[in-house]
Amino acid sequence: MSGKKVFAVCLAGMTAVLTAACSGNSAPGVSAAEQEQVRSSAKNRMEAVEELGTLAIGISADYAPFAFEAPDGEDAFSFEGADVELGRYIAEQMGVEADFHEMEFEDCLKAVEEGTVDLVLLGMLPKAEREAQMDFTDPYYQPGRQVILVKASQKNKLSELSDFEGKAVAAQYGSLQAQLVTEQLPGSRMELTESASGSVLMLRLGTVSGAVLDEGMAEKALKERTDLALCGAELSYEGEALVGGVVKGETELLARVNEILAEAAEENRYLEWLDAANELAMSLQQPIP
């Protein structure tokens, strides 16, 4: 996924089968075959991570503010976002390097199932059908209220969920927001975007009547844009928290990751990373005259 397209409108439907090659870096000086040899000969995955000196982390870098690409010099991009910072923190606490492998969401699930990555951080909900593919970590983030941004000039006309009947509503591909639109706004037409900021952009362009966002991202957008407002109604969400996933059966690795997640939660680190990622994602939004 090109970094130059982070905020472009996603042209694929939610059920489209997307494939992309892994773009992560292998452990320095160690071939994929040699890495597999280390993993197969180690007592467990945690020992292999320590021996290789890297933690292989699957991400889908089209899901701001959790993971996205940002300019990093001329014609170069870096991985950014709250989940990316979390991955770096986990690796640092383990005393190894974070080795990010960027793939489509479904390919990340397959990678952790097959063991080609150690851990996935995808802004992911612990859906039952994914339990066969991985072991879930402890929760690391609880999503907030799920709200709808509208243009300020339309606030009085779009104050109830029923007001979006027959209208276009933007939500990010593969996100909780897209799921809620499908369930709770069946009469609307959903436009899928590659990022939450992309949903805001579509609203500002007038392509959609509303943008469904987590309250944290909505608050950032409202600070930047006085022409936007919150709809009086919001989508109902009883709140599963986000989790990561590790290779199934690797209890030592899972225990160490959970220990580090607990440390991060105690210091409120994830909310700080999420706030910074929201700010960066909004700053990258394409300007509109």
Describe the structure.
The strands form three sheets. The protein has a five-stranded mixed β-sheet, with helices on both faces. Strands 10-9-11-8-12 form a five-stranded mixed β-sheet, sandwiched between helices. The protein contains nine helices and 13 strands. By secondary structure, it is α/β, with parallel strands linked by helices.
Q: Give the overall pLDDT as a whole number.
A: 86
Shape: elongated
- Structural class by secondary-structure content: alpha/beta
Query: Which percent band covers the strand fraction?
Result: 15-25%
Low-pLDDT residue intervals, each spanning 5 or more residues: 1-25
Biggest sheet, open or closed, and with what strands and sense?
A: 5 strands, mixed
Relative helix content: 25-40%
- How many DSSP-defined strands? 13
How big is the Rg? 19 Å
Strand arrangement in the largest pleated sheet = 5-1-6-13-7
**How many angstroms does the end-to-end distance come to?**
27 Å
